[in-house]
């Protein structure tokens, strides 16, 4: 016979899953004695035993969710936090926000601090690609949701933008516009799954359509100005620049302006993740518009559902949020 779930017990007891979760957490502050006795009776009748995660929940919830951001200076982060905050606020939870500045060591310290503060759950934009670097959160039996970036094993619910499919669509637009060479400019690709998927899409479209594909990774040793000047001066091919996020795009635009290179007259340009300001440059820049607010709200709802119904966690899914291609005159 199938073991009853928290939802089954809540339904028979005539209470919500939130009330049932509070009962399991021994949070009786706003629970009548009658409700408490009714749930106790149903639990006994059904011989209900919470799963290992539910059993390990601490006796007193803090109603605080830790949110670990990889780089809070990025515009993406503020939109992500807005989406998370909207859902947590509606459910009477607060955020504890930390910024790892893309440092794995700092990230570990901050996550351990959140665990010591007994947060009820963690939403993480991971710095590392290795799932093993986050095993300690799993060992602490704290619900975890990954946002924006993936790790190499699907051990936790993960919410990301559509990085691969929509970038392929942009690649096909380059082909339609008769470009012969595409230069992808990005921070080091191997560091995050988002960059890797975006570049993979461009590389595959280039290979399938005989476009020359060049990868330029921004490192301290690279002089972007010299690279673009020399690269464009030595090639007669119709060329398009693709940047993997808006921060790289702003750097590239500043360099093109300094070199007096015009788009789309001298070169095409497009980007993943451009924000509203890109539509104010010339006649606008072709960008992929992702939805970090929805990514944030989706991740927060997963955490809330896990806390209300521990039997449902972890639901090991990749939740891919749709992104949209905004076509302008820069291509």
Automatic annotation (TrEMBL):
Residues 4-59 form the HTH lacI-type domain. SUPFAM superfamilies: lambda repressor-like DNA-binding domains, Periplasmic binding protein-like I. GO terms for molecular function: DNA-binding transcription factor activity; transcription cis-regulatory region binding. Transmembrane segments: none annotated. Coiled coil: none annotated. Keywords: DNA-binding, Transcription, Transcription regulation. Pfam families: LacI, Peripla_BP_4. This is Ribose operon repressor.
């Amino acid at each position: 016979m199938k073991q009853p779930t928290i939802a089954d017990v809540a339904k028979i007891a005539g209470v919500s899953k939130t009330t049932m979760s509070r009962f399991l957490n021994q949070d009786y502050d706003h629970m009548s004695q009658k409700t408490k006795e009714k749930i106790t009776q149903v639990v006994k009748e059904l011989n209900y035993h919470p799963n290992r995660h539910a059993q390990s929940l601490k006796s007193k919830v803090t109603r605080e969710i830790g949110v670990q951001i990889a780089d809070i200076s990025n515009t993406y982060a503020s939109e992500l936090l807005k989406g998370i905050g909207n859902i947590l606020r509606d459910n009477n939870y607060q955020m504890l926000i930390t910024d790892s500045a893309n440092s794995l060591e700092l990230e570990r310290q901050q996550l351990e601090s959140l665990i010591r503060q007994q947060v009820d759950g963690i939403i993480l934009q991971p710095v590392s690609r290795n799932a093993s670097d986050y095993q300690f959160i799993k060992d602490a039996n704290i619900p975890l949701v990954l946002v924006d970036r993936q790790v190499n094993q699907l051990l936790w619910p993960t919410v990301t933008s559509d990085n691969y499919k929509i970038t392929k669509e942009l690649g096909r637009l380059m082909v339609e516009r008769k470009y012969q060479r595409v230069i992808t400019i990005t921070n080091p690709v191997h560091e995050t799954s988002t960059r890797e998927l975006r570049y993979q899409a461009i590389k595959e479209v280039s290979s399938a359509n005989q476009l020359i594909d060049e990868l330029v990774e921004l490192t301290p040793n690279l002089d972007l100005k010299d690279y673009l000047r020399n690269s464009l001066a030595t090639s007669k091919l119709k060329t398009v620049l693709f940047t993997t996020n808006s921060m790289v795009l702003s750097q590239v635009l500043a360099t093109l302006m300094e070199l007096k290179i015009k788009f789309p007259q001298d070169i095409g340009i497009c980007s993943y993740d451009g924000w509203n300001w890109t539509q104010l440059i010339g006649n606008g820049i072709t960008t992929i518009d992702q939805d970090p607010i929805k990514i944030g709200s989706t991740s927060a709802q997963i955490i809330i559902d896990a806390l209300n119904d521990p039997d449902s966690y972890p639901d090991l899914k990749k939740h891919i949020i749709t992104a949209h291609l905004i076509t302008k005159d820069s291509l």
